Amino acid sequence: MYKVIFICHGNICRSPTAALLFTQLVDEAGLAAQFEISSAATSTEELGNGVYPPMQTVLKRHGINPSGHRAHRLSAQEAQNADLLVIMDSENRWGLSHLGFAIPAGKVVELGQYGLGGEIDDPWYTRDFERAYAEIEAGCEGLLLKLKEQLPPNKS
Predict the structure, then answer these.
(1) Which residue of 29, 57, 60, 93 is most buried, as measured by CB atoms within 10 A?
(2) Alpha helices in the chain (DSSP H)
């Protein structure tokens, strides 16, 4: 099973959106049995909180149910067990480097490189939740295409 963890600062906007979108794409591709998908924060500011309400609105508008998500900080165990840690911007890379444990080399990639290019700005600050959604969606689509090349053939 390929383990992907989407990472952002608080785990209430971008990373849960990416995890929910990627899960949907993986399900639609018939690959759910080959992936374990989650999200996490680099900070402790939002621990236990659900998806930020304006992002919930955007997700619901796109037919995605955000209920059940609770923000948590990435643990050393999660980082060790993951195949890929997908960050949204350079601030997240900095945050990972300050968690107090080593992140295995080669596991960290930026989601934007698989989509529209560039960083996915934090909508908490930009207030543009639709743009963040579109950038995350493009990144998730591109990431899935890339990962499908690396997966063993699906025996269904």
Answers:
(1) 93
(2) 14-28, 53-61, 76-81, 90-97, 123-126, 129-150
What is the percent of the chain with per-residue pLDDT over 90, rounded to a whole number?
Answer: 92
Name the band, by pLDDT with cuts 50, 70 and 90, for residue 150. confident
Residues acting as catalytic residues: 8, 14, 122
Domain range list for the chain: 2-150
Considering only CA atoms, which of 117, 85, 105, 91 is closest in space to residue 18?
A: 85
Long-range CB contacts (< 8 A, 24+ apart) of 99-108?
A: 99/42, 99/73, 99/74, 101/76, 103/79, 104/79, 104/80, 107/79, 107/82, 107/83
pTM: 0.95
Select 2-150's CATH number: 1.10.3720.10, 3.90.1720.10, 3.40.50.2300, 3.90.1150.10. 3.40.50.2300
The secondary structure of the chain in percent helix, strand, coil, rounded to multiples of 5, reads 45, 15, 40
